[in-house]
Write a structure and sequence with these properties.
The chain contains eleven helices and 16 strands. By secondary structure, it is an alpha/beta fold. It folds into two domains: 278 residues, Zn peptidases (Aminopeptidase), CATH 3.40.630; 111 residues, Alpha-Beta Plaits (2-Layer Sandwich), CATH 3.30.70.
Length: 397
């Protein structure tokens, strides 16, 4: 395995410029969820260049490919990269800045695809040196419900052949380039969207006794709902209930008829997740009724929590340390952000881990989903190398 590891390292170094060019092309041409048509065409062309067979148009724009080593039916390991961008206007001053107005790869999916293509080329070149099959999954729409992972699974992406394990890699600006971060067990939260409409009776703001003020009532509800987290949840059960949108479209002297509130629920326990929804409905509707207003609550079921398989992730930590060296693999804290990789991890043992991309000296420190997000592109070498190495290591496990 040491010789194979050295070969992967050598090829990752040799392909860094190409993978950097791939990442920059994808960054310049971002596409939103389930609209990744040109992205898919680009990926397919690269797979054609590498001589890798694939199936396209899975979940509309997704691509699935197989790289077969010796004894290909022995074991199967899947590697997944997401494809979609975000509705954000980029503020970076770089040659590869987004050319699609209002759309940006602000979550690093361009890097994910580039690393997986780099790993694919490496694995194809070394296919006579490992046993088993590597399944490549280029997944659309990680950012938008219901999530491309769910749709791909429904269309059979985890069958013919079924993976014995799956890895997902995600850039991480909180970790220095050159490092990898992992966490066995619960890692990222479930997510649901909360939509509440308060229906009152609008009118002149100077005559409040003649109206049923939905802004006042909605404000009380926002405050009251915080008791779900502060008074109902256990300290050992991390929970977030936040509202990011509050629309009461009146004027300085006009109270509107209704208010729209939109927010998120994040937690890790499925039973408690269901209880939160019941609490929201009871509190919001009860308070609105007591103040003379109507209330409609719609809670959209989102992604489940990301729970990394403990044994697989412990092995992966060892694989990463072998490849990068001691001190380069960090154990991560639980996060309240969410990821639809969780659907894959519910079906087969999964490991979702982080690729460090931070470089303070170069000023590359912006958070994910920021208009100034960028990565230290030297991290792409480790990104493709570690994907290839963990795949062959797990196949030989």
């Amino acid at each position: 395995m040491n010789e194979l590891k050295d070969s992967i390292r050598s090829l990752a170094s040799a392909y860094l410029q190409e993978v950097t060019d791939i990442r920059r092309h994808l960054h310049k041409h971002p596409e939103l969820s389930f609209q990744e048509f040109k992205t898919a065409t680009f990926i397919a062309a690269k797979l054609d260049d590498y001589g890798i067979a694939y199936q396209d148009k899975v979940a509309k724009t997704g691509i699935v490919a197989l790289i077969k080593g010796k004894n290909p039916d022995s074991r199967v390991v899947a590697l997944r990269a997401d494809m979609d961008a975000l509705p954000i206007s980029e503020k970076n001053d770089v040659p590869y800045c987004s050319e699609n107005e209002g759309v940006m790869h602000a979550c690093g999916h361009d890097a994910h695809m580039a690393c997986l293509l780099g790993a694919a080329r490496i694995l194809k070149e070394l296919s006579n040196e490992f046993s088993g099959t590597v399944k490549l999954i280029f997944q659309p729409s990680e950012e938008y419900y219901p999530g491309g992972a769910k749709v791909m699974i429904e269309e059979g992406v985890l069958e013919n052949p079924k993976p014995d394990a799956i890895f997902g890699q995600h850039v991480f600006p909180e970790l220095d380039a050159g490092k990898i971060g992992m966490r066995p067990g619960k890692y990222m939260a479930s997510t649901d969207e909360v939509h509440i409409t308060i229906k009152g009776k609008g009118g002149h703001a100077a005559i409040p006794d003649k109206v049923v003020d939905p802004i006042l009532i909605a404000s009380h509800i926002v405050v009251a709902l915080q008791q779900i987290v502060s008074r109902k949840s256990s300290p050992i059960m991390p929970t977030v209930l936040s509202f990011g949108r509050f629309i009461g479209d009146g004027k300085t002297n006009i109270i509107p008829d209704e208010v729209q509130m939109d927010g998120i629920i994040r937690t890790f326990d499925e039973s408690w997740r269901a209880s939160i929804k019941e609490e929201i409905i009871q509190i919001a509707c009860g308070m609105a009724e007591s103040m003379g207003a109507g209330c409609e609550v719609n809670i959209e079921q989102g992604y489940p929590a990301v729970v990394n398989d403990d044994m697989l992730t412990r092995r992966a930590q060892g694989f990463a340390a072998e490849y990068l060296g001691e001190g380069k693999v960090e154990e991560l804290d639980m996060r309240m952000t969410a990821e639809d990789f969780s659907y894959f991890a519910q079906k087969v043992p999964g490991c979702f881990y982080r690729l460090g991309t931070r470089n303070e000296q170069e000023g590359i420190t912006s958070n994910l989903h920021a208009a100034t997000f960028n990565i230290d592109e030297s991290s792409l070498e480790n990104g493709m190398g570690i994907l290839a190495w963990m795949a062959v290591s797990e196949l030989n496990h």
